[in-house]
Amino acid sequence: MELQPKGNIETSPRKGWAFFFLCFGVFMVYLDLMIVNVALPDIRTDMEIGIRGLQWIVDAYAIPFACLLLAAGALGDIVGHKKMFLTGLAGFTLASVWCAESSTLTSLLAARAVQGAFGALMIPVSLAIIRLTFDTPAERAKAIGVWAGIGGIALAAGPLAGGWLVEAFGWKSVFWLNVPVGAAVFLTLSVLMTETSVRAKRSFDVVGQFLSIAGIACLSYGLIESHSLGWDNPGIIASFAGALLSLIAFAVWERRFRDPLLPVSLFRQPLFLVALLVNFLSFFGVFAVMFVMTLYLQNVNGLTAFETGVRFLPLTAAIMVMTTIGGNLTAKIPPVAMIPIGAFAAGGALFWLTSLEPGSGFGVYAWPLLLLGIGLSLAGTSTTVALMNGISPERAGMASGIANTFRQISAVVAVALSGTIISDRVRASSDAWMSSLSIPEEWRSPLQETMASGNLNAEAWRSAGLPADSLEILGGKTADWFAGGMHGAMVLSGIAGIVCGLISLLLLARRGAKRNVRGSAAPVIPPITAPSQPK
């Protein structure tokens, strides 16, 4: 099962232009992951939904994106990276039209799921193309730095562009933006880029793909719906049980299948474990922050969508700058030092954000957001460069798919868990207050879900029988309850960052790990041979 090169991106300058547009396609996918956040309050108002609906809008994209990244990396190695990338780009662009034309939550969620599925086809194969195109570690580090920098630019542009588009043209415009850009990138890459590789005689792991989707989907459903149905609800318990059983079955199956999506033998490699931990634990924080603070800034502090995007600049600009220069930094400072430092910095920044209160000014959260961006970039870029330098060529697509999968799973869990923490806090704090005002039982759950998004729906409260003189008091209480829940989400995210730093220190300190991470000639993750069992 050898990698069969079919060619390369053409030599410079054509190679440079093809690489530029390849990164532009990646930019689209990451932009759409972040640009929707600032549109959530407007979507909530337009579709009259609560925090559960907002969580599903984010996770409907992230769940298929996370689940299919493994398959995309493997399929790219089988059928060719160019073919896989262009297929994903075409489907992503068409799904964006569907998102823009959606008028109901059900339609929007379905469109977002399709959009995330096709977006998943693009990311791992783009990194594999870079790995197979740039031969020397120095060139590869610079190219990966640019690739990561494009993602950073998308992260910075998302809130700003999204805020401006929402204010000028409405929330649907954040999806229409993808259509002309996607068409231009597709046509250009069809001409400039040739196929980079095809991996022959390899089977696709259908069972493993199904089990991974089932596990992640069940986990997400349980986390998001638990605050509405209750943690002891039979459906929630069954959902978590289904997630556990699916993931156990996935691990067992992957040990037996000849060409697994996730080779279990990889987990014996310290660097690979660190890559997964960094992609999950440290990035858990940024996804939680972007989701929770968007609701905080717009619904609690009363900022517009564009003003919200501006307030995120310390975070997004730091990621954009640091990921752009991260490849060069990794060539000078070994990842064994940069990864823990970045994780600790990100964890500390998240604890710092617990100082936020209703009405806090920009100066209160600008510095911790800046530190969070720097920490995430140091850890993330160093991990990516070290992993790509250490992986064998025939596993480039698979390894990048696995690493990105864990990052996207962190997005799913971060949004689901942070929203649930806030909802539980609001529900626990408001139950007694509602009882004292004799609010009817049938009104409590929908009103609490609205408050969990940081928003006070005055008209709904009037319909529920709340006296007019109590509305102003309730507005202040809603903001306090939301801030308390937000603090809980930040503490959990901060703990994740610190744990990531500690575990990466322990794993990289193992015998031989430091030498390999510093860039020895021997591959950190050797080629994987198929087990003796037949398929």
Largest sheet: 2 strands, antiparallel
Number of strands: 2
Overall pLDDT confidence: 78
CATH superfamily: MFS general substrate transporter like domains
How many H/I helices? 21
The span between the termini is 14 Å
Provide the CATH architecture: Up-down Bundle
Q: What is the top-level CATH class?
A: Mainly Alpha
Helix content: over 70%
CATH topology: Growth Hormone, Chain: A
List unreliable stretches of 5+ residues: 1-11, 511-535
Gyration radius, rounded: 23 Å
Structural class: mainly alpha
Number of domains: 1
Note the run of SSEs as H and E: EHHHHHHHHHEHHHHHHHHHHHH
Shape: globular
Protein name: DHA2 family efflux MFS transporter permease subunit
GO molecular function: transmembrane transporter activity
InterPro entries: EmrB-like, MFS, MFS_dom, MFS_trans_sf
Subcellular location: Cell membrane
Written description of the protein model:
The chain has 535 residues and is mainly alpha-helical. It has a single domain (9-194, 259-428, 479-517), classed as Up-down Bundle (Growth Hormone, Chain: A). Helices cover 78% and strands 1% of the residues. The protein has helices at 14-35, 40-47, 51-79, 81-101, 105-120, 123-133, 137-169, 173-176, 178-192, 206-229, 234-256, 270-300, 305-311, 313-332, 335-352, 362-390, 396-436, 441-451, 458-463, 468-508, 513-517, and strands at residues 3-5, 197-199. The chain has a two-stranded antiparallel ribbon.
